[in-house]
Design brief:
It is a single chain. The chain has 332 residues and is an alpha/beta fold. The protein is built from 10 helices and 12 strands. Strands 7-8-9-6-5-4-3-2-1-10-11-12 form a 12-stranded mixed sheet. The longest helix is centred in the middle third of the chain and has 14 residues. The structure holds S-adenosylmethionine and iron/sulfur cluster.
Length: 332
């Protein structure tokens, strides 16, 4: 599939649910989202049908996300079903990691190839502040479980927010002794009209990747460490990150800059929301409803909807970012 700007689109991010066992302050309101009803949300069979059609049109990679994908009942069966679809070459997941100690083995056996685990702070109290309900040790145990069962690569995604004043070097050091790929992601002021409780958070909280790199290297120097240098090799599925590494480290440190460095020209993705809307761009609220076509079992209409969304992919995102839905509903 090529979009109208000549970009090859072969990657689909699927939100399995808008529900979550955390309540991260930048992602959803304190009381949680008003959950989509059972009828609104796509069944696992409907998701499988959509992926089958999408694979025929060139989608090769699928990422399962949410909300928290591991709270969706039957997620292991979905992974197994997607693995069997001709043309799907890899299946990955973005998760907060809490349920990985219980589920990692089954997911690996079902065919999940790789995981990204979200972790924004290494400080217990701040972890509770950011996730509102989570425990740092649970996510750390999820990272251990992912490495133990052999997911490769295992990436750790940290959203950087200026007012959180995170221990950037501490994060970067996670990449030294174990094959962990730490990625710093700029905070995106998405969903602010959807009540995610971030009054006052905005552009001032975005720390550019350049500044992050400079700060990490200054802190490393103060500890007598060598600075980060461009990595020899990018981890698989490197996407839009720029990768660096400490000399001799087993993992890498990546910087993803959706705001300070638009990577729209490299965009290869479409998104499917949990309630069956195809979203051409994370930053635009334009969506195309594919649920009715899926429920009617009409694969031609499903394909037509995919093509319509593809045709509507903007060349780049502009200053206004989509704000009507939280990241948990879009599938971040
Ligand atoms: N629950 C899973 C998790 O947290 O990994 C998957 C869904 S979550 C919406 C996916 C990613 O989006 C997480 O890494 C999260 O940190 C990120 N995210 C959520 N809101 C964000 C925002 N406003 N700016 C940047 N990243 C955000
Ligand atoms: Fe849940 Fe992930 Fe959103 Fe945090 S970022 S509330 S873990 S969906």
């Amino acid at each position: 599939m090529k979009d109208s700007h000549g970009r090859k689109i072969d990657y689909l991010r699927i939100s399995l649910t808008d529900r979550c066992n955390f309540r991260c302050i930048y992602c959803m309101p304190e009381e949680g989202v008003c959950p989509m009803s059972h009828d609104e949300i796509l069944s696992l069979e409907e998701i499988e049908r959509l992926v089958r059609v999408a694979a025929k049109h060139g989608i090769k990679s699928v990422r399962l996300t949410g909300g928290e994908p591991l709270v969706r009942k039957g997620v292991e069966d979905l992974v197994a079903a997607l693995t069997g679809i001709d043309g799907i070459e890899n299946i990955s997941m973005t998760t907060n990691g809490v349920l990985l100690p219980k589920m990692a083995e089954t997911l690996k056996t079902a065919g999940l190839n790789r995981v990204n685990i979200s972790l924004d702070t290494l400080d217990q109290d701040q972890f509770r502040e950011v996730t509102r309900v989570g425990k740092l040790e649970d996510t750390l145990a999820g990272i251990d479980a992912a490495l133990e069962v052999g997911f490769d690569p295992v990436k750790v995604n940290a959203v950087t927010v200026r007012r959180l004043d995170q221990d950037l070097l501490g994060f970067a050091k996670l990449s030294i002794d174990r094959p962990l790929h730490v990625r710093f992601i700029e905070y995106m002021p998405v969903g602010q009209d959807a009540g995610n409780g971030l009054a006052g958070w905005g552009q001032g909280d975005v720390i550019s990747s350049q500044e992050l790199l400079e700060r990490i290297n200054a802190d490393a120097k103060a500890e007598g460490m060598e600075p980060l240098a461009p990595a020899d090799k990018n981890p698989l599925g490197w996407g839009p990150a720029k990768y660096m590494a400490f000399p001799g480290a087993k993992g890498t440190v990546g910087f993803i800059s959706p705001l300070s460095r638009h990577f729209c020209s490299e965009c290869n993705r479409l998104r499917l929301t949990a309630d069956g809307k195809i979203r051409p761009c994370l930053f635009s609220d334009t969506e195309y409803d594919v649920r009715e076509a899926l429920r009617a079992g009409d694969d031609d209409r499903v394909a037509a909807c995919l093509m319509e969304a593809l045709g509507a992919k903007p060349d780049e995102h502009h200053d206004k970012v989509g704000t009507e839905r939280n990241m948990s509903a879009i599938g971040g």
